[in-house]
Design a protein that fits this description.
Layout (H helix, E strand, L loop, with lengths): L9 H7 L6 E9 L5 E9 L13 H8 L4 H18 L3 H6 L1 H29 L7 H11 L5 H10 L3 H31 L7 H34 L7 H21 L4 H16 L5 H32 L7 H27 L8 H9 L5 H8 L6
Antiparallel strand pairs: 1-2
């Protein structure tokens, strides 16, 4: 808990929070470029405990330091290749053929899942006063835990050659779902920032609601625009005569999408996902044969290495992350909430979609989509580095 100056209130922290706050908001008066003083708010995120020279000699502390890296590295370097590869690897014809169903599961379904998880977790925390979670905290937890990462499922699908419609639904939902989860988590944090007091704030709600759609649509537009620009550039120039330059330009244009969206205070993850989709649909056919092979292999390799690094890091951080608080009852309730949220997402929406689909989603497909919504590396990283999203 902090006051207007950003200083901690020791008594309040000791009562409601066993450790330091994740984020400190500091209101300060600064001079702008014209020399005029104006009020600005700065957010400082917790990076960890500062250890003195004596403590650094302890093996446990050294291991903790070695196994911790800046969350900016994850969101700016490791995550973009994973998301771009998801969009770039989509089977275009089947993806756009099931576009409506994929968007329904990814956006409306994710919203249902978030609300169900938040409601169950909040109801449980009312029965356990020791877990001082607000409904906003539970919404944030629901947003980040609703991110799906069915890497293993898709690998099995590829080996046994499952139905292309099922593959498109699972793969398309998982790709869009990660981006939606990030934007939803940002919107929850925006509501907490705009809200005045502890009661429900209608104005803050609509601001956060508008922030969700403006950020998502704006980021998607940037990704689509730069993907289309790359397609035009490769179509009307002779870059195909220089495969190395063509591949380098393709990679740089794709990553610049992420940077431009972040510079515009939007979400680079959504932008790079839609850039990948447009690159696959338009740019890929304009590339030379060498650049097609190089780009496909390079992004698949980067995505595979990034995901394996995250899984390895999660395994180590389970023993070194300094602020773990284990609550077995809450963990069990969270498992139940995630399962119920997934059920409320898949089965009702599948029944609704089947009313207007010529090729229905059969019940066995619905079971596979339900079980493929496993929580993986992305959700775990969001949980550890949630404050960096705000």
């Amino acid at each position: 808990m902090t006051d207007a100056t950003g200083k901690s209130s020791p008594g309040a922290v000791e009562e409601s929070n066993p450790g330091p706050p994740d984020t400190v908001w500091l209101l300060s008066e600064v001079k702008n470029s014209g020399g005029v003083r104006e009020n600005k708010t700065f957010a400082y995120a917790l990076r960890g405990e500062v250890l003195n020279a004596g403590e650094n000699k302890e093996t446990g502390k050294l291991l903790q330091q070695k196994a911790t890296f800046d969350p900016e590295v994850f969101f700016n370097i490791i995550l973009p290749p994973i998301i771009f590869s998801a969009g770039y690897s989509m089977k275009r014809r089947h993806f756009f053929k099931n576009f409506g169903a994929i968007f329904t599961f990814a956006i409306l379904g994710s919203t249902i899942s978030v609300l169900v998880v938040a409601a169950i977790c909040f109801a449980f925390t009312r029965l356990m006063p020791a877990l001082a979670f607000t409904f906003n905290d539970c919404l944030f937890f629901g947003a980040i835990i609703s991110s799906t990462d069915p890497v293993t499922i898709l690998a099995v699908f590829h080996d046994i050659r499952v139905d292309v419609t099922l593959h498109a639904l699972v793969f398309g939902e998982s790709a869009l779902n990660d981006a939606v989860a990030i934007v939803f988590a940002n919107s929850v944090q925006s509501y907490a920032y705009y809200r005045k007091g502890e009661a429900f704030d209608t104005t803050a709600f609509f601001k956060a609601f508008g922030n969700f759609f403006s950020v998502f649509l704006g980021s998607a537009s940037i990704g689509a625009a730069l993907g289309s620009a790359t397609a035009l550039l490769t179509k009307f120039t002779r870059l195909a005569d220089f495969p190395l330059l063509e591949t380098a330009l393709f990679v740089l244009m794709s990553y610049s999408t992420f940077l431009i969206a972040e510079a515009a205070e939007l979400t680079g993850i959504v932008a790079v996902l839609f850039c990948g989709i447009f690159q696959a649909h338009y740019t890929y056919n304009n590339l030379s044969r060498e650049s097609q092979d190089h780009s496909k292999f390079s992004f698949e390799l980067l995505s595979f290495l990034a995901e394996n690094f995250i899984f390895c890091y999660i395994g180590v951080s389970m023993f070194t992350f300094p602020y773990h608080y284990w609550s077995i009852p809450f963990i069990m309730v969270a498992f139940l909430a995630v399962i119920l949220g997934r059920i409320c997402n898949i089965y009702p929406l599948s029944a609704l979609l089947n009313l207007g689909r010529k090729r229905k989603i059969p019940l066995n497909f619905q079971h596979m989509i339900f079980f493929s919504g496993l929580k993986g590396a992305i959700s775990c990283e969001f949980l550890q580095y949630g404050p960096i999203l705000c």
